[in-house]
Specification:
Layout: H1 3-11, H2 18-28, H3 39-43, H4 50-57, H5 61-75, E1 77-80, E2 101-105, E3 114-118, H6 125-141, E4 144-147, H7 153-163, E5 168-171, H8 185-192, E6 196-200, H9 212-222, E7 226-229, H10 238-247, E8 251-254, H11 265-272, E9 276-277, H12 281-287, H13 289-295, H14 313-321, H15 329-336, H16 340-352, E10 356-359, E11 362-365
Parallel strand pairs: 3-4, 3-7, 4-5, 5-6, 7-8, 8-9
Antiparallel strand pairs: 1-2, 2-6, 10-11
Length: 367
């Protein structure tokens, strides 16, 4: 049995994950030797009870490995382990790296310049719009967008990257053959069709469970340079990804929200506790050095009209929030906390500089 097949065989045993695999390896010297042990010796390892020992000893295990490889090959899915070329180097810093990784699509070296974009499944219009805007900007400078293919912010981030002809990686909390949610299967297929990759540490046909999504989040954090939290309530799963990102030494970036909105309580607490407040692509590039280098001077994603170079901080704040979708005065006021009179004066200044214009429903950037 090859070392890669030994890892895959353990990954296919229900209830055995990275921590138990590490204990087994420490007890028996190498994973290949695990499967020649008797029940008593296996149960002597902490966390390996009778049921897990029985499953590890199951003589059908080798056939299950062959079946899994055949099923994945037919679906165009590669299975990687730490012994294979292409195994993500970022997993080396994880205390519990996956035993195996199922990959649909292609991972590329440039995907190490990635930003995780996270937020709730039920996002507000503000959160959805912000995720689209920042993900589009990041994709245009060449960053890879990483998220979890969930409804809401994840979907907005993936789709924005694709629309900007950028790369994006979706990390699932299910097996690739059981894409969750099902309505995002076409999105997963678009990502894998030359625009990035869909990843899972779970066997091809594994169903999602409540516990698989928090585990998925650690891979999202590990694969990124920074974690960008678009919106997070007090118990949002995005907070798990942000915490893990901080533990892994990644920059944690947070878009602020109104203090009286429950969907922003978690986000604002992250900022209070030391995360970096960001409101624009420029803020992100200023905090994540490799992305600023990637963007470079003159990149089309960061080119600005000449008049924008001399904006005041308040003018720049408003200008960065505008795009081709109208934003109402009330929306801008809630987002920026700029007093009404100052907001009107700032918008007028942007109009005079031909950087903004009125449109039905609010203000947009001028062409």
């Amino acid at each position: 049995m090859t070392p890669a097949d030994a890892l895959l065989r353990l990954a296919l045993v229900p209830g055995v994950g990275p921590i138990l695999a590490a204990r087994l390896e420490a007890a028996f010297g190498d994973l290949g030797g695990v499967f020649s042990q008797n029940m008593d010796r296996l149960q002597a390892v902490e966390g390996i009870g009778a049921e897990k020992a029985r499953r590890i000893c199951d003589p059908r295990g080798a056939d299950q490995v062959a079946d899994e490889r055949a099923r994945c090959a037919a679906a165009g899915v590669r299975i990687l382990t730490r012994h294979d070329e292409g195994w993500p180097k970022d997993f080396a810093s994880l205390p519990d790296p996956p035993l195996a990784l199922w990959v649909l699509g292609e991972l590329q070296p440039r995907d190490r310049l990635a930003v995780a974009v996270v937020g709730p499944r039920r996002s507000s219009a503000y959160g959805h719009r912000t995720a689209q805007r920042l993900s589009t900007g990041l994709a245009r400078v060449g960053a890879t967008i990483i998220s979890g293919l969930a409804r809401g912010i994840d979907t907005a981030a993936h789709e924005a990257a694709l629309t900007a002809s950028g790369r994006t990686i979706a990390v699932l909390g299910s097996g690739i053959g059981r894409c969750y949610p099902e309505e995002n299967r076409p999105l997963a297929e678009r990502i894998a069709a030359g625009n990035g990759a869909v990843l899972s540490e779970m066997p091809f046909d594994a169903q999602p469970t409540p516990g698989t999504f928090p585990r998925r989040n650690r891979l999202v954090a590990a694969l990124s340079l920074a974690v960008l939290v678009i919106e997070a309530g007090e118990t949002s799963g995005a907070l798990i990804t942000a915490r893990l990102g901080g533990e892994f030494g990644k920059q944690v970036l947070v878009v602020p929200g109104p203090i009286d909105r429950p969907e922003h309580v978690g986000s604002n607490k992250l900022i209070r506790d030391g995360a970096v407040l960001v409101t624009s692509l420029d803020d992100i590039l200023a905090e994540v050095g490799p992305l600023a280098t990637l963007a470079g001077a003159g990149n089309t994603a960061t080119e600005q009209p000449a008049a924008a170079a001399s904006l005041s901080s308040r003018e720049r704040q408003l200008w960065q929030l505008l795009d081709d979708e109208p934003r109402g005065v009330d929306d801008l006021m809630r987002t920026t906390q700029i007093p009404p009179s100052a907001l009107s004066a700032t918008l007028l200044s942007l109009e005079l500089k031909r950087l903004a214009k009125k449109a039905p429903g609010g203000y947009v950037r001028a062409d």
